[in-house]
Backbone:
């Protein structure tokens, strides 16, 4: 009888130490990959780690993990390990955990900086109406993109039901995030509890200003990607907004990549039911700024940013390149040559509790395409002169492609 009880207890203990929610992220180093995972119990027999290699039956390399214990609420532990000395373009197999429980074996291909960026970009994806999850899994399996950028409003919400909603979401995206880096930035639904859930669950590149992951940048081949936290403006956090602005200014000044893409959550431009477009002060403040908060639009314009993606409004809209509300209209809206200002794409259509179609907004003079479909955007940077984006319709599992758009530049 005693033996049976001990066996049951041992089984329960091993179950709660079982690693879950395995996901990858980039840290800005070309030969490294970060692996993050969670358990509901601290592993006590040995350190959690990643075992990996180029052969799934011979995982001969090991990377030890650091541990973060969550404060308050359900007991959770986050583990992070950095895999080093990885060969670009090489396929690696890995599993995470310890003798108390290992994950399944996953695999990823280390990004090759000599190859163009292929990325899925979207915001506002829920676990309950997450229509884009299945086509994103399909796209991962079919090698349609190498990295994912989820630009705010994650799970709806990561912290809900004492974090159980976040747990469910993280497990749902594991077939994506355990195979390609899943990069995030905060939206308004991540601000609760001082951003603790997005900070504890994800591992993003360090910004050198704050010890968190709320804004960051990295290079991917010939493309520089910048992620900003527009919630500093909505929350009235003047100090943090100014610190981020100064960091952004320095980052852009030091940037040498051919292409520059900026990711934020709140829309800088969009069509809404208002005849003035995105006129909510919480949305216009990051762009325009005021006496207390520095606006970012002039920086983006002065440093020749190519594309700006954002969400928050639950729809898809592609806009002309523009500055200060003035669209730079050319002959072909689907193939823009040598743009003089950033182009803007609203990608808040991945799937959540509400959704907007073209009938729900008044088209602005700067608007090119508005779609009522659920889905996400894929960007492909071909070389130093050409890139393309297209919208992936999530109405079927494989995702139909819509609204193809090219930028060509020779400067």
Residues:
């Amino acid at each position: 009888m005693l033996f049976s009880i001990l066996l049951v207890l041992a089984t329960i203990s091993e179950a709660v130490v079982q690693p879950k929610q395995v996901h990858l992220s980039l840290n800005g180093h070309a030969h490294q990959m970060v692996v993050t995972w969670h358990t509901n119990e601290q592993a006590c027999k040995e350190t959690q780690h990643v075992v990996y290699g180029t052969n799934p039956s011979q995982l001969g390399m090991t990377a030890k993990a650091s541990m973060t214990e969550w404060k308050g609420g359900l007991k959770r532990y986050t583990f992070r390990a950095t895999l080093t000395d990885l060969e670009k373009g090489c396929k690696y197999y890995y599993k995470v955990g310890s003798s108390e429980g290992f994950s399944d074996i996953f695999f990823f291909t280390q990004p090759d900086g000599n190859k163009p960026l292929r990325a899925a970009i979207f915001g506002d994806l829920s676990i309950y109406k997450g229509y884009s999850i299945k086509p994103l899994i399909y796209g991962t399996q079919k090698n349609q993109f190498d990295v994912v950028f989820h630009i705010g409003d994650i799970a709806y919400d990561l912290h809900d039901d004492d974090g159980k909603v976040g747990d469910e979401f993280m497990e749902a995206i594991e077939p994506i995030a355990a195979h390609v880096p899943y990069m995030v930035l905060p939206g308004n639904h991540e601000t609760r509890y001082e951003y603790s859930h997005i900070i504890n669950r994800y591992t993003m590149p360090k910004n050198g200003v704050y010890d968190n992951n709320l804004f960051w940048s990295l290079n991917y081949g010939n493309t520089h990607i910048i992620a900003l936290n527009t919630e500093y403006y909505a929350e009235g956090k003047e100090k943090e907004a100014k610190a981020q602005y100064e960091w952004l200014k320095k980052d852009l000044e030091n940037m040498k990549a051919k292409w520059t893409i900026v990711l934020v959550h709140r829309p800088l431009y969009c069509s809404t039911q208002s005849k003035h477009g995105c006129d909510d002060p919480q949305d216009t403040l990051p762009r325009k700024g005021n006496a207390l908060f520095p606006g970012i639009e002039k920086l983006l314009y002065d440093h020749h940013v190519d594309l700006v993606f954002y969400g928050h409004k639950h729809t898809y809209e592609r806009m002309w390149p523009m500055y200060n509300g003035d669209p730079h209209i050319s002959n072909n809206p689907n193939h823009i040559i040598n743009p003089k200002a950033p182009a803007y794409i609203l990608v808040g259509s991945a799937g959540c509790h509400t959704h907007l179609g073209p009938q729900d907004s008044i088209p602005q003079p700067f608007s090119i395409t508005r779609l009522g479909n659920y889905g996400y955007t894929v960007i492909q940077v071909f070389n130093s002169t050409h890139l393309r984006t297209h919208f992936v319709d999530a109405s079927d599992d494989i995702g139909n492609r819509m609204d193809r758009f090219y930028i060509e530049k020779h400067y």
